């Protein structure tokens, strides 16, 4: 978790910084409320169709990228750059292979299978129970997305548990909810494009400042930073590649966008999103590489902000605000679609809006609870590796038994990692993330066997 920034170390007036930060939140949110389109029917609210037109490839690509560049991820990217140099940034960017995997799978599911959603595919192939189990997993993910992003925002306004901390979270959540309620997925994609442009501009301002500040810090310095060794980030890199074959499918923010535009338009958007998103993460990790070059310690983004003063501090804050807002409004839209269309709990526009209010409240309540409770609710990327054969081998006609064996097997391996009880003899590399890599490797192998063995036995 991003720690509260002690702005006294910047020799700045704390109240002035606080006012400017509040101004960024209020002005950006009010602008989105005014500019967001008003959804008048379910096509606009759930499928982002305006005047019977679906989002084009550029809009869809921008929405995909910024929805995944959430506050926690760019903080992690900078910290990995600090710890491992460019290798750390590349390792984290490897998760964006998820877009390419999901793009191809969804394209073929639509064009060859005729499916209109992930839920339809699961219900048709494996039954309603399989769809409900999947829905529980993604509902928990959406629940986690709310508090995990707003907590990062709150930490920039005050220490955890303080009045500024709580008030900033509540205000930010309510304002983001307001424009999400106005247009649903239409609002989400419309504001995502604006947020993506802002993110890119602000990121290049920060990088321009960094490169111009030190004559001996050049692109060549960045390329030479880090070492391509197991313990220096390669463990994480390969783990990210393995998880990319399952991770995207338990994220409805990503998969919902795979079914709203024409298949070829969607595939193009997903492929570009994988490249652009990965590049953005690598570029943001350069902030951490600079911190490493300057022998800084702690949270990379915080240390660089301290080094460059108020302007860079506010720009980095605004990047975090922008990325958190884009993820939060997408989370509200996806949960609304899950409850209304996928689970068929309601059919009206008003029900979809009330579903947004429900997830906003439920997702905010954990902010006031103990951190250990929050950790217990997290569904990790390892826990969903059982989805790998389900979607990679989506064309295979298998029974629901195959599905349950694989998904439950993935959950078991996820818990083995969480509770640190995976056999050390099966971990063949050293350093941080070695357990993550090998639990995923063996777990995916076992899940494929669990998925296919019942099929082989029938033959």
Question: What does this 3D model show about the protein?
Answer:
With 459 residues, the chain is mainly alpha-helical. It is 72% helix and 0% strand. The protein has 21 helices and no strands. Helix 9 crosses helix 16. The N terminus is likely disordered. It catalyses: L-proline(in) + Na(+)(in) = L-proline(out) + Na(+)(out).
Order of helices and strands: HHHHHHHHHHHHHHHHHHHHH
- Structural class comes to mainly alpha
Counting DSSP E segments of at least 2 residues, the number of strands comes to 0
User: Could you tell me the radius of gyration in angstroms?
Assistant: 22 Å
Oligomer: single chain
Mean pLDDT over all positions: 89
| Head-to-tail CA distance between termini | 51 Å
- What level of helicity do the residues show? over 70%
Give me the number of helical elements: 21
Shape: globular
Sheet having the most strands: none
Beta-strand portion reads under 5%
Low-confidence stretches: 1-10
């Amino acid at each position: 978790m991003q720690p509260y920034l002690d702005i006294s170390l910047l020799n700045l007036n704390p109240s002035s910084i606080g006012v400017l930060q509040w101004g960024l939140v209020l002005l950006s949110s009010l602008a989105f409320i005014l500019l967001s389109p008003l959804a008048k029917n379910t096509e606009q609210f759930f499928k982002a169709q305006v005047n019977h037109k679906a989002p084009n490839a550029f809009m869809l690509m921008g929405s995909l990228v910024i929805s995944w560049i959430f506050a926690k991820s760019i903080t992690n990217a900078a910290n990995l750059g600090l710890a491992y140099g460019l290798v750390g940034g590349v390792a984290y960017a490897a998760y964006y292979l998820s877009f390419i995997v999901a793009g191809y799978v969804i394209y073929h599911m639509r064009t060859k299978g005729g499916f209109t959603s992930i839920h339809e595919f699961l219900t048709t192939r494996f039954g309603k129970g399989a769809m409900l189990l999947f829905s529980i997993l993604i509902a928990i993910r959406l629940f986690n997305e709310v508090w995990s992003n707003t907590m990062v925002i709150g930490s920039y306004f005050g220490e955890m548990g303080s009045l500024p901390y709580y008030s900033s979270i509540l205000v930010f959540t309510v304002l983001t909810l307001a424009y999400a309620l106005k247009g649903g997925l239409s609002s989400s994609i419309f504001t995502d494009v604006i947020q993506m442009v802002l993110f890119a501009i602000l990121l290049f301002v920060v990088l321009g400042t960094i490169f111009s500040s030190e004559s001996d810090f050049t692109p060549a310095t960045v390329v030479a930073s880090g070492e391509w060794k197991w313990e220096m980030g390669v463990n994480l890199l390969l783990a990210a590649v393995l998880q990319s074959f399952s991770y995207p499918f338990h994220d409805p923010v990503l998969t919902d966008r795979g079914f709203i535009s024409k298949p070829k338009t969607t595939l193009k958007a997903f492929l570009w999103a994988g490249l652009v998103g990965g590049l953005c993460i690598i570029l943001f990790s350069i902030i951490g590489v600079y911190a490493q070059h300057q022998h800084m310690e702690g949270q990379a983004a915080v240390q660089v902000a301290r080094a460059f003063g108020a302007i860079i501090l506010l720009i980095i804050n605004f990047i975090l605000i922008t990325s958190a807002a884009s993820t939060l409004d997408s989370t509200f839209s996806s949960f609304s679609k899950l409850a209304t269309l996928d689970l068929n709990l309601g059919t009206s526009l008003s029900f979809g809006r009330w579903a947004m209010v429900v997830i906003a409240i439920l997702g905010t309540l954990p902010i006031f609870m103990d951190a250990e409770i929050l950790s217990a609710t997290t569904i990790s990327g390892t826990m969903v590796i059982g989805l790998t054969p389900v979607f990679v081998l989506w064309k295979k006609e298998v029974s629901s038994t195959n599905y349950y064996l694989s998904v439950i097997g993935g959950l078991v391996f996820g818990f083995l990692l969480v509770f640190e009880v995976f056999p050390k003899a099966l971990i063949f590399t050293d350093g941080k993330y070695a357990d993550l890599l090998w639990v995923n490797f063996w777990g995916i192998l076992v899940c494929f066997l669990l998925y296919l063995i019942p099929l082989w036995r029938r033959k």
